[in-house]
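Checklist before submission:
- one chain only
- standard amino acids only
- sequence pasted in full

Submission:
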Amino acid sequence: MLARLALTLPLLALMLLPAAPTKTSTRQSTKSVTATTPAATGTPAATGAPSASPTASTAAANSTAVPIAGPGVSTSNAAPDWNGLPMRTYASLKKRILGDPINIAFEGTQSSIIAAFVKIGWLQADSLSSRNDIHLAEATIKHGSYPKAPVSNLYLFGRAEDFAVEHELRSVYSRDHARFWDTTRRDGKTGLDLFVGDASRDIAIKVLRTKLGLPRGTTHKIDGNLDAERTTIVNLMRKAGLVATVVMEPGMGRATNAMNGGGDRFYTDGKVAVVVLKGK
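Returned file contents:
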């Protein structure tokens, strides 16, 4: 989603950019994960909604999400407990602007999750800094490559993500990426920590402008099919032999024409794929 370039570069340059352990898991496994594509209709979600972000417990009660696999995928009694977890990030805590939904989760340690992504060809994103922002800005202007480009912060549990991972596609303009937060919840039987995250695909870079129309930075535009990105990650992890089990849990609930903090429309069945990594 948002990946702003450093404002230390000339604004004129921005104006030239084109628009646009081996232990038994306590979770119940699903046989497969396939993307769904609901029709892009309905009422847009308010980006500055003052209400609280959806939680797993409210989503489970109110969601009309369709199954991901089979005639009726069931959810487990989450281990660790899934109830009460926030299911929507914020792009701005101060302004209460909603960001991307939570659609992917892992049981493992932070290091094991990052290592799993490295095995499927992804990299941990660089941190936000003036130096890295300038590197990103230069790569953007030149339509070049920056495989570890920083991502802008989204917020959950009142804080920015603990880490982010990505896989650059054709250039810095497009990439698969995901942010993750430590829930501080742990599976009592396996000893694995629960991390929840948002995953999406960046497909372009667009210029952010002030109310007067002056450029103030840039943002990545995301592909609206968030379920496809979730499925991509799960399938890559499975193909690499890294997965003990995957289970679908309730998320924000089905959305057919929602909007994130960058103004991009998205649609989703509103579920979260929880990947339990294999032990060593």
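Reviewer check: The radius of gyration is 18 Å.
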